[in-house]
Design a protein that fits this description.
alpha+beta; 6-stranded antiparallel β-sheet; binds 2'-deoxycytidine-5'-triphosphate; binds calcium ion
């Protein structure tokens, strides 16, 4: 960007603030381009919409999605009736008697797959909730997005949670700009640092429901505005396609980076779209509590609020870069200093790579013997196989079984084994590994009754790159479960297995030789375990019961854990 013609006051400038170089950077989706266009699309009251559409209800029918005794998502009709986002089923009925409460599907010992059931409350102690239906809907929506966005102009999509995705529209917008405005085609005789001509005087359509701008800024429309409006037009089209095909509404935010796009999408809901003009960024941000900013919701945010004794973003603005750096460290200080000014260069990465998945449960009374435990291993395996359907072309290479005789309070014993690369990755393969690992734990340690059991698959590899062997795996299958009757109390715990000390055992084809023993007898750590550890854990939620910060994928299981703990505390 060149500041050559700054300070001309309200008289329309002849040249843009931007150069051909900025345009070139836009084409490459470079985060350094001041013309960058990033969008975040987030589904409105996602689980509630899934249920409302599935049940064929109208939007104005209040609906809540129930998980055991709690309501974990309510639609906008219920919010209009004054209900908070999370509450108990009893409170929901009291405050809004006409509300429809739909329980999430559950796994049940003895059944072949998860199902919607009318009698969950009679089986609270043995059912395990399943998010598969919502994951499936998320997948369907995502495939519409991938189909609609042009590959030629390389729009990049990043799934950022079960119901939201970022799109880097920069390259696509560049393509459209050049199609629509011939004056932007580079003249080879000109220097790349030449200022662009001004955009033509336009009757401007922002393609949004809410525009954030600086009302005092009289500099007029420039190419960054045109770029954002083209981005908004694309997002509007995407949202429209999703609605036509799935009947789900979502809200969109369009701005120059991920942090701002996310804030914008949350600003007006439901079914609304917000665009932040670059000139409006300081004003837009000044109202926020800084912990709302992506990246400041967790520990770093807590540190900042403790150090500077404030939650308000505006209170941080007078703090100098050097003070930030001396308090928070060079890198973190600089990062926070920029972030609160709306500067964020993080890239939209086309795929969030899940590194591991865990399926888990606590039991009270504990599982009596290996037979009971095997029934639950089958459910865990089916749960994990269902979730792996999202992982097209990637498969885990390690499976571990974690066994904690006294639940969260340990000790925990874990064993892991390599998943044979040549084998079909199905319930038979995973069960065979899991069973032999559990048997080994049971042979080596006093193990029954057991209060917490889990399996974890990890070290995901791309099928093509990892071995070169072409095999079939993960064709969607019916889960095969034949479960014994189990008396164990259901429900998950949140825990983190100790880091595996050794790498996987033999990954050779066909070898089912399990068991590199890891951390036997180590103290059980009472910390949150992210069931789907991604490189970039994005969405965190504050649990209404304990204020712990929980990733989206763990929320249901976390509430499950509270439920189990409440039961324990009252018994
Ligand atoms: N979720 C949950 N418990 C929470 C928060 C979220 O189970 N405390 C689940 C249910 C939500 C889904 O994750 O439908 C997506 O979470 P969002 O934060 O995007 O919230 P919603 O989509 O429900 O509502 P909004 O319209 O505010 O986006
Ligand atoms: Ca949402
Ligand atoms: Ca969301």
């Amino acid at each position: 960007m060149n500041a050559e013609d700054e300070g001309e006051g309200p008289i329309p400038k002849k040249r843009s603030r931007f150069t051909f170089r900025d345009l070139r950077l836009l084409e490459r989706s470079s985060s350094l381009s001041p013309l960058r266009v990033i969008a975040l699309v987030d589904f409105d009251c996602f689980y509630a919409q899934c249920e409302s559409v599935r049940l064929g209800l109208t939007e104005d029918q209040p609906l809540g999605v129930q998980q055991f005794l709690h309501v974990i998502c309510i639609n906008y009709a219920a919010r209009a009736a004054g209900l908070p986002k999370v509450l108990t089923a009893v409170e929901a009925k009291e405050k809004c008697p006409e509300i429809v409460l739909q329980h999430v599907p559950t796994w049940r010992a003895g059944d072949e797959t998860w199902a919607y059931r009318d009698d969950v409350l009679e089986h609270m102690q043995t059912d395990k909730s399943s998010l598969d239906y919502y994951r499936l809907q998320s997948r369907l929506a995502f495939s519409i997005v991938e189909k609609e966005l042009p590959t030629r102009s390389k729009a990049k999509v990043e799934k950022a949670g079960i119901d939201e995705f970022f799109v880097d529209l920069s390259s696509h917008v560049h393509h459209t700009l050049l199609q629509r405005y011939a004056e932007l085609v580079v003249d080879s005789s000109e220097s790349i640092d030449t200022l662009l001509p001004r955009p033509p005087p336009l009757i401007f359509d922002w393609h949004c429901d809410s525009l954030v701008e600086d009302k005092d800024d009289s500099s007029g429309i420039d190419w960054d505005d045109v770029a954002l409006s083209i981005g908004a037009e694309i997002v509007q089209g995407l949202r429209q396609r999703i609605y036509e095909q799935l009947q789900y509404t979502c809200s969109g935010g369009v701005a120059r980076n991920k942090v701002l796009a996310k804030l914008a999408a949350g600003k007006n809901k439901p079914n609304k779209q917000t665009v932040i003009r670059n000139s409006g960024i300081p004003h837009f941000l000044s109202d926020f509590r800084f912990r709302k900013l992506r990246g400041l919701g967790g520990k770093l945010g807590t540190r900042v609020s403790t150090l500077f004794a404030t939650e308000q973003l505006s209170d941080l603005l007078p703090i100098s870069l050097s003070t930030m750096q001396s308090e928070l460290g060079l890198e973190a200080g600089q990062w926070v200093f920029h972030l609160i000014r709306g500067i964020d260069h993080s890239a939209v990465t086309s795929r969030t790579q899940i590194q591991s998945m865990m399926s888990q449960k606590t039991f009270s009374p504990g599982l009596k013997n290996i037979g009971e435990a095997t029934s639950w291993l089958r459910i865990f395996v089916a749960d994990i196989l269902g979730r792996m359907e999202d992982e097209d072309g990637r498969r885990p290479t390690v499976l571990s079984v974690n066994h904690a005789i006294r639940g969260r309070f340990g000790p925990m014993h874990s064993k892991q084994a390599g998943i044979p690369w040549g084998a079909q990755l199905d319930s038979k393969c995973l069960m065979s590994l899991a069973q032999s690992l559990l048997q080994k734990i049971s042979d080596e340690h006093p193990s029954w009754p057991c209060q917490a059991l889990s399996i974890c698959v990890s070290n995901f590899k791309d099928q093509e790159t990892a071995s070169g062997s072409i095999i079939t795996f993960l064709t969607p299958k019916k889960r095969i479960l034949s479960l014994d009757d189990s008396e164990g109390v259901a429900d998950s715990t949140l825990f983190e297995q100790k880091k595996l000390k050794k790498s996987a055992a033999s990954l050779d084809n066909g070898l089912l030789e399990p068991a590199v023993s890891i951390d036997d007898g180590t103290k059980f750590e009472e910390r949150q375990y992210s069931t789907e550890t991604t490189l970039n854990p994005l969405e965190m939620y504050t649990c209404p019961k304990c204020t712990e910060s929980i990733s989206a994928d763990d929320v249901l299981e976390h509430l499950d854990w509270h439920f189990a703990k409440d039961l324990q505390d009252t018994s």
